[in-house]
Every structure is written in structure tokens, then in C-alpha cells.
## 1
Amino acid sequence: MTRRALVPAALVVALAAFPLLQLTVGGFNYWLHMLLIVFMYVAMASSWNLLGGYAGYISLGHSAFYGIGGYVTGALMTFGGMSPLWSAPLAGVACFAIGLPVGLITLRTRGPAFIISTIALLMLARLALDNTESLGGADGLSLPLPDLPADTQKLPFYYGMLAVAIAAVYTSYRIRHAKLGLGLRAIAEDEVKAEAAGIPTAMYKIVAFALSAVFIAIAGGIWGYYLTYLKPTIFFQILTSAEIVLMAILGGRGTVAGPVIGAIVLVAADELVVAKLGSTELNLAAKGAAMIVVLLAFPDGIVGTLKARGRLPRMLDWG
Amino acid sequence: MIDQLQVVILGATLGGVYALMASGLTLIFGVMRIVNIAHAAFMVLAAYLAFWAFTLYHVDPLWSVAIVMPILFALGAAVYRLLFARIADRRRYTEMTVLLSFALALVVEGVTGFLFTGVYRTTTPDYASDAFDLGPFYVPKGQLYATVLSLVLLGGLLAFLRLTRTGRAIRATMQNRAAAQLVGVNVRRISTLTFGIGTALAGASGALFSFLFPFFPSKHWQLIASLLALIVLGGMGSLLGTFVGAMLLSIASAVVSDRFGPTWSPATFFLALFVILLVRPHGLFGKKAEL
Amino acid sequence: MTLLEVEQVSAGYPDGPNILDGVSLAVERGQTCCVIGPNGAGKSTLLKTICGLLRPRTGAVVFRGEVISGLRPDQILARGISFVPQDRSLFPDMTVRENLKMGGYTLRDRKKLAERIAAVCAMFPVLAERHAQRARTLSGGQQQMLAMGRALLLDPELILLDEPSIGLAPQIVQQVFDAVARLRAAGKTIVMVEQNARKGLECADRGCVLDLGRTRLEGPAASLLADPQIEELYLGKRRGGDAAGTPPKAAEEPPA
């Protein structure tokens, strides 16, 4: 194992061992809950980064896949009696399959028109779920409760989210160093030149689009089961998209470590500062204001800015 | 047959309002290449101002158009100077404007929600629930007044752009920014002015829809998604395209609402967008691949 | 009397290297100066620096005895320098008349504006004939006339022409040079960059050879035309017909 992989590996081991505290000492449910949220956002921001970071195609509608993932998982559990262990990954596969044709259509444009079409996608998905009575319509759908004692109740979700987060970050790392990642970055740099250089830009973009839906969908599936109910107003929020985008940009678009760091910083900030404002409206305004400051002052994000100044610590340089 | 014509009438009388809503967005995109996601958030803010002016001081929302326009003009001009002017020479500028205005929309929504709470509101002047009878048809008074006033404002905008020196400078900047600079147009001033005008138009349409449908702070997402679909359909940056797109979509969504129920009517805009992207990625009136 | 002096100017695009590397040039009032040189020599950059689109990093531009480098483009325009860029920079969806009006944007006096438009139309009658036509529907030659006409609207003392004949069919090129001759006859001082070096020098008083961002040679146009070394390096062999050195390239330098 190279030295570079040491820090992430140690982190994974520590996180995998963390629930032991809950089992032996007890009283760590709050921490498990917070870490679970961090894992979820790490997975989603890293997933979004495949398209928004590497290829430079900003989507503001990726929370559509969060919702679709949640509903596919929930429907398979409720109507198919399937274990979430299988249904959540299946939701990922389903969203990959949905992502291909959607990408095929939306990626015919670029820049603002693409971004707009992603917003329209989210709105359309939400409308569809709002009006599908068999899935509960606007009232939502209750899921079977996990049958576990309170002490260990969070553990399956904790490990599930941890696994998705690891899978997302690892995928992001592998893609960045593969031909696909190189091609996507060339597209972000100059699509016409990339095309001229023989990169199959259309196919790469569509694959990136579909892949970027996968981990978001799985995270949505796990989160739905964790909440024990699904509701369009919760699962198809543009605010979720905003958070994902903000995390990726804050951490550093197009880097492997960026979305991870952005997710940690933002979840922590949300919990420590913004929640203290005591009103969801001000919370929203604060998120917007934070995003404005980041965009104006650090458009390259934490990792990007540090890298440009040659100040990026080795432990954060994940390639 | 009569029923169907009635649906078309209902759609067409809303079309003018949609055109007014989208005109500011188109103008701002045309001059500055800014896709202003916060446009509808400003509309909702203006609707709340009209609501409170009506509730507290009995100001007719048709008159409060004259009040909210200058307020929103000042707000828009300030926002341009404080935010958008700062990123004018960034790489991937248009994409930056989307993200920035997206963040701005969150701020405006948050502040609107904080000031006015999340309760559903509508302004209720008498004409909002009244209609003119025209033989077998009826025309809701509220929709008619709103569309007539919208068309008047759009006509004024067009005359301003065509006939005045400043209007010509705005059009010149839309067509060729570098050339406008070359002949001595202060492009920064024109941009500030245009952003102000665009936001003022958002304000005017907000005051008008305050009595057309119920609104709440997060309503703007649905509105902006529809408006953006509409301007993509119109080819982005073309005022004529915007107008035609607004009329078409407004009528189409009235038909959808009639056939499949009102909850599906916003879906018309989004489906139309995807269909357009499939057959004509640059919109009905778009010329270049500058999207 | 010297109208324009470029003194040891270095300049380039933002964040880019110096394209001009100590260029000096002096133009007398009423003279036409043709700047020639290979692609990438900095010819367009020189004009953009004079008219204020780029700022010199060192050196100065002096116009009528006043240092104008560092002023904004509109301030330089107000002092009497108009620039006709290579891409003509018209407003494609405006009519010819509206384009001319935009040329006089800084004139607030409507009567004066109408007078100037009439004067320009007298010089280029084709603009009067087509006054209601959209600029994008004009032919290439007519577009060049419109660009020149628009630049003349403020009655500038100095006109900067960037490759006026670029992209035009050979029979149209002559019309453009005739137009330049009309500007000369009207007493304008002209600095012209021309890819078609021979033709450019033929209708100029002085010539200036720019290479790698420096002035290589400056002198009367006639003597440059007669110089065998210049002929070989920059004018191409006479036997090559209308030899213009290298064929014109679409974009000589990155856009501003």
C-alpha cells in the first residue's frame, strides 16, 4: 500500500470501528446519526462531482435521483418484500438506467441550457411522484420499520452509508485516473478540442451522467428506510441539490478529496452554527449567502485553492 | 368545441403575464449572458409586497405595480453591482452566473420566508373572482386585466428599446458587446441598468400574479423552472421568441390542465423543454450554439 | 506636426506574455501609415493598444501632445481616435442607419448626429441606399464600408483600420482601398494594418514593418516597396501575382 493511501485507509478503519463505542460504552447514537449524514453527503457530492466536477456539466437537479432512489428502494421493500440490502443497490442500477436516456436528451445542450434542463428534470420527477397515487402521492409512503433494539438500530444504516460513501469516493478516484476521467476533464477544458482529439465526448458525458446518479440513488434509498417514510416534498427538494453542489464547490470541484471535505465542513457548519439560528428560513438564507461567498472568493474550493498555492497537505492529496 | 375554445381563451389571457415574467429574464440573459435563477424569487418577493400593500393599505395590486417596480429596480441594480459585476471576466462565466443566481435565489427565498412566513397568500381584489361574459364564453377579469397591463408594459419596453438612445445602447450591447464598448457605450452602466429593468419587470409580474394564483416563498422554484423552459423554447435572448413561447406554453398548459387536471399543468413546460431539446436544441428562435 | 507617437510600448493580453516588445512609431497629421509584418507580429495588438482596449505595460502613447495610454477606450474615442477592428464589429440585427447612430452614441445633440450621418452617407453613398437594411444582410464589402462609416461618425482625426481587406473577394478589395483613399482625401490621418502588404503600402505615405513585437523598419511607403529585402521577406515575389506574403488567417491573435 502506498503512503498516499495510508490516511484514507486509516480513516476507513477508524470509522468502521467507531460503532464499537456504541456497543461497549453506549450513548453514541447522536454521533452515529451525524456521521451517517456526513457519509450520505460525501457519497452524493462525490457522485455529483463525476459530472459537475470532472466534465464541468453542472446539474442542479441531481436530487431527482435521490428521490427516485428512495422510492425505488421503498417500493421494492413494500411491494416486493425485498431486503434493503438488495433494493438500495438495485435503485442505484435503476437510476443508472434512467440516467442514460435522460443524459442523452439533456446533454444535447451545454452550459445554461443544460443546467436548466436538469432543474426541469427535478420538477418533472417531483410532479410525477406527487401524482402517483399507488406510491402515496403527495402524502407519501410509509415503509416497514426495521426490527432492531434501540441500541443497535442505527448500525445497519451507518455501515450502509459508510459503504456507499467509500464506493463513491473510490469510484471517483478510479475514474479520475482512468481514460474516462481524462476524457471528461478534457471536455471540461474545451469540448471542441476534446472532440477533435478523438474523445467520444457524447458517450463519455452520458456515462458520467448515469454514473453520477448511482450513489445519490443508493444514498436516497438508505435514507428513506432510515426515515421510515418517503414523501415528495422531502425527497425531491432543490435545496438538496443546492447542498450537494455547494459541498462539491466548497471542497473543490473536480478533485477527489474536495467533495469529501466540503461535505464534512458543511454538515458540521449546519449542525454547529446554522441550526442555532433557529429558523429554517434563515438557515436557507445562510446557505445561499455561504454559497455566494464561496463562489466570489474561493471558486476553486478548499482543495483547489490550497493546491494552487502549493499548500495542500499530503494527507488531503488524493490524486 | 366551445369548451375547447374556452380553454384556449383562459390560456391566452395568462400568456401575456408569462411573457412579462420571462421578458426580464430574456433581457438580462441577452445583455449580460446571465441566467438569473433568482428572477422568480424576486417575483415572489414582489407578490408579497403587493399582498401587504393590499392587506394593510388597500392598494389595488394593479397600482402596486407602480410601487414595486422602482423598489425591485433598485434591488436588481444593487445585486448586479455587488455580485454579478464582480465575476464579469471569470472563466466559464455563464455557468458561474447560474450558480451565483441560484445561491441568490436561496437568500431571497429565505429572507422572504423570514419576513412574510410560509403561509399561502393571494391578493383578493374584487375583480380577481369576477368574469366578463362574452356570449358562450367567459373571460376572468383578473386574468384579463393582468394580461392587458402586461402587454402595455411589454409594449413600453419594446418602444424604449427601439426608440431611445439608451434602449439602442442596450440592444447594441445584446448584439455585440465588444462593438458597443468600441463606440463609447459604458457597458457596465448599461448592464446595471438592464439588470435593474429586468428585475423591475419581475416585480411588475409578481404584483400581477399575486391575485392570479396562491403563492408562498418556495413557489419560485416551480415558476423559474417553467420560465426557463419557456425561454429555452424561445431560443434564449430573443424577446420575440419569448413572447411566442409564452403564448404557446400558456395555452398548452391550459389544455393539459383541462384534460389531466391542474396538477399536471406545470408539467407541460418541462415536457415541452425536453421535446424541444430533442428536436431543436437551440430553441424555436435560437440561431447560434451560444447556449 | 506629429499627431501620434507610440514610444517604446510593450503590451499583451491580460495574463499573457508581451506581444509588443518596445514598439515605436510616429505618424504626422494627414498621413497614412501602413503597418505590415508576418502573422503574430503584433500588428492588431498595436492598434488595440493605441485605442485603449489594451494598456501598455511600459512606454506611452501620445496623441496631440497628450499622453493617452491608460485612458479608457471611450475617453480615447472622445479625443478623436476611432478604431475599425478586423471583425468589423457591427451590430448585426440593427439597420445600417441604427449602426451609424450607434457610431455617434456619445453625441447627445440630435441635430449634430443627423448632420454627421448625412456627411458620412455623402462619403459612402451605398450606406444611404441601404439605410433600412440590417447589417447582417450586407455583403462583406458593404459591411466594411459601414464599419468605416460608423468610425467616421464622430469626425475623428485619426482612424485605425485593422485589416480592412480581410476575407473579401479580390474584386471587392479594390473598393475597400478606394474607400481608404477617400478617407485620405478627406484629410484623415490613418494607421492601417494590412495583410495585403503591397496594396496597403501602395495607398500609404509611410510604412512600418513589425516583427516579433518590434519595429524593424520605418520609412516612406515608396522606399519600402522598392526595398528588395522587404520585398523578399514581406511582400512575396512579384511573379506570384497578387502575392500577399502568407495567406490571411482567420484569427491572428486571441480575442480581447
Note: Chains C and A do not touch (no CB pair under 8 Å).
## 2
Amino acid sequence: MNKLIIELTINNKKRKVETTPSTRLLDLIRDDLHLTGTKEGCGKGECGACTVIMNGELVASCLILAPQADGAVITTIEGIGDDKCLDPVQEAFIETGAVQCGFCTPGMILAARKLLEENPHPDEEEIKRGISGNLCRCTGYQKIFDAIKLAADRLSSRDGGRSEKNA
Amino acid sequence: MHQRTVPCQYFAPQKIEEALEILSEYGKEIKVIAGGTDLLIQYYDRLYEINDWLDLKNIKELKDIRINKNQMEIGAMVTHTQLEKSEDIKKYFPVLSQAAADIGSPQIRNRGTVGGNIINASPAGDLLAPLMAYDAQFKLLSLQRESLISAEEFFIGPKKTILEPAQLLIQIILPLPPEKTYSCWIKIGKRKALIIATITLALVVEMAEDNKTVKDVKTCLGSVAPTPIEIKEIREKMIGKKFSELDFNQLGQIVEDKISPIDDIRGTREYRKDVAKNIMINALEEIDLARTGRPHNE
């Protein structure tokens, strides 16, 4: 298997990574960059656990080859907040108890972030559609909806700017 | 660990000509990749089996949607999200936009492409019945020649098309429909998101100037045959007739009688036949409502 080097910007850092043409972006993120917040669920693009934001779009990193991401700008769950300062969506998930086992949470939060960026005041149907690519087998979704509504309220009542700055 | 004798190569050219040269050199050995949302699932766990990749992501002209005189030209790398959100597509080809919006999930729609949906040629490909209903032609290019093929000629079986190894699908061309064109899209599946269709219907009706007489009609279905199909018998029953005098039940029955679906995990043959009739009736009612502003026979 021959190697190739790709360059990408991940969580605002430029990285060069040696990889192979058949490596999935998901594996590159987890195994080479050690960003294990991104999870592998089904590996078939159906569960959304591997969701990241690539070039401003929500994508399933299990369905992308590493070289397809050459030159891309990627945000993973590690890139939207830190121990001292969580993203408002993360805070809302914690406060409403929208996290149970936690496996879907990184993808769910990125999907919620992306939804609120495009549509700051989603109704329930729009929330359902926004996270339709992310499965949760614990919560029954209600608390996730509550979290997204809470985050939407907070983001619009604050300056709404934090989500933009970190995007 | 699989040992490969020839090293695997990854090409991502910027120009169509380069892509065609690579394709003619490597032929069947190379896999063309667009969004990868179907391809990578098919090769999940077996990615090492692919020797070489040809990625079209850097070819900018394949990502455009544009109107050229009286036709819409859609690049093969246009994503489902682009189709869903494009104002021009919504205006002229609403069924195509709605079908794109019904595909998979945001994650899938952001990556999956119209060209990929066509080349993959799944009998359940969501865009295929709408493309056929809008008289789509596919522009195929090889180093030697360019050809335009209708959707009807292009698909020859489940996952089978007439595309040759040295050819690339580069563009989808749709004639802009006349003003009084009404359309309806119905997708039936077990859930809304991330579902492979049990049956799809794209009905496009062109009315005459009087807005009462049917001038042309296309009734195209997916997931009911080895390829997307048009029920041509509907034409004889509708063209030249007053829409208000149509027997929707009879038209639904024709659709039911003319399809030959199979039993599979998504539905039985019998179920699909029943549903085909009902969604045809629903689609006709919806078009009548859009046309007159009131329900049929009122």
C-alpha cells in the first residue's frame, strides 16, 4: 500500500498526515490525530456517530476517504469548546440531561450546532430534520430536542456570536 | 493483511480532460468516486480491493447548476443539498428538489451527488424517476467522443447502465418545462430519514394553454422494476383529455397493472402494487388541487 501525505486544517490547526488512499477520514481522525471524540457506530453513514463538520458542512466521516479531505477544514467535537469554556450547545445538553450513554453525543452536538447556525430558531419539525442523520438509542430524543431549544434561546439572547466565532 | 503487488494510486485532477486520460489509461482498474455515499458502503471492509481511485472533487465545472438558453445544465458533482436548495431547481423542477430533500440525511445529502445517484443506478435511486419524468439527458464524455443519452436508454438493469469504462458522466441536461406544468413527488418508505424507497412516483403533467386539457404527461416510478420506468399507457389515457374528466381510479389501476415489482425486505409485490395505485391517485389529486385551487370533482 503506498502512502500519501494530505494536509488539512482540523480544529483550527494545520496538520500534515501520512495516510493511504483507502483510509477513511474517521480512522485518520481517531487513530492518526488521536481525536477520539468522533465515534464509529455503524460505519455505513446511517447513525451519525462519526459526524464532523467539513468545509462548513455536516458529513459522516466514515463515508469519506482521507484523500477526499485533502485541503479541507474540519471541526470535530474537540474543536467547539474546551474544559474552561463549553459551547452553548454543549452546556444545554448537560443541563437538560440530553446525554445518557454519550456515544451519539459528539455527532448530535455537531448536528445541532450546524442546524442552529443555518436556522437560529428551528421549530420541532426542523429540529427533527436537522438531527435526522443522528441516532440516539437512549434518550428517546425528547431531552435532545429540549437541549437544542434551550441552546437556540440562549444563542439568540446572548450575542449569538459565539457559535460564529468557533465555526 | 492483504498484500498488494501494485501500489494503489489516488488521482484528483482539476480538469475533465485529465480525468478522461486517467480513465482511458486505467479503464476498469480504476474506481471513479464522487460523494462516496453509496460506493464506500459497497466497499466497506474491503476498501483494499480497489487498486486505484479517480476522485472528481477538484473539477469545479462539475459542481455548477446553470440555465443555458432553454435548458438546465446540472454538473454531475452537484450534491443533493445543492439540488434541494437551488432556487432555479425549486422553480423549474420542484420534484427533483423535493426528491433530493428526501434522500438520506443532512450528512448524506451534503456528500452524495446527482451523478453518483445516476451511475450507481439502484432501482431505488431517489433522483432517477424525477430525472426521467423531466426528460433528462445525460452527457457522457470519453477521449474520443461526446454523447447525449436519455435516462430511458441509460439504465439497463439493477446497477447496470450503458456507461463504458472510458466514459464519464459529466452533466445532466433538462429542458425547461413550459409554464403550465404541474408535478408531484411521492416517496414511500418505512421512515422519513435514511430509508431506501419502497416505491417512488414522479408525476409531471403539462397542461395546454386553457389549463384544462392535458398536453403531455410523464408517470415515472422507482423501486418497482429493475430500472426506473415510465408508464407510457397513462399518456394515451390523459393526453388531449380534460383534466376534470379524468378517472383517477382507472389511471391508478393502470399504474398498478403495468408495474412488475418484486418481494423484498422493503415490501412485497402485492403491497407495492396496491400502494402504486394509491399514490398515483394521490398525485393526480394533488396536481388537480394545484391547478384549480380546489379538490377534484367539486
Note: The domain at 88-166 of chain A is CATH 1.10.150.120 (DNA polymerase; domain 1).
